[in-house]
Known about the structure:
2 domains; about 230 residues; mainly alpha; 10 helices; about 0% strand; single chain
Amino acid sequence: MNSIDTSRIKKIIQKIMNEDKPKTVKQLMAKTVSVTGKEEREIYSAIQELEKNNVIKLGSPKIIRELPKSVHEYLFRNKYFVVEFWTLLILIGVFVPVGLFIPADSFFSFLRIIFGILFGLFIPGWIITNLIFPRLYENIDQLERVLLAVSMNIGIIIFSGLILNAIWLIDSAPFVIILGSFSLFIHLLSVIFRVLLGSKVINAKSKVFKAKLTEIGFFKKKVRKDEK
Length: 228
């Protein structure tokens, strides 16, 4: 099997892992065979190489997802990021008018409760974790991300309350404005940061910056006088 065939099989394997999420290696191999028409021996060899390079884990449908390389890919092409981005954006867009314009004694007050719980316990914290840990499955897994989001969200609510108590009025409307604006800003910022990482712009800039610091002797070890 030549390198072109191997590369094609690897891409198909990763696509199947993303879209179909097979529960076992056997299911992954069966699906790959049906798509490529290749022998199981060739496919298993490709799976082993992917697992060796830490791209996938055998026996698990989890895969290290590559970050999108452009805003268009982030918003419209990469399945996970597309669903996450538009879901969060819609929730933020609905949360603000629900919190501001639906009275507490209205028939639709249950919407205030639902969105109050979502934004009081989870959404802003989840958005911040996307900014702090932009890459998936590398530093923390999804369960750890959820737990971290809940704990961070509590801190955000407390901090927002302190700000409102100091400069404004602790009321539902100011809370909605602060949480909505903060969530939207961080959400858009995380998109930009992930795209810059995915396109390796940040990595390239950091290497150039480090090289310049090295040239001017920033990383040189300072020798004390008594060591000379």
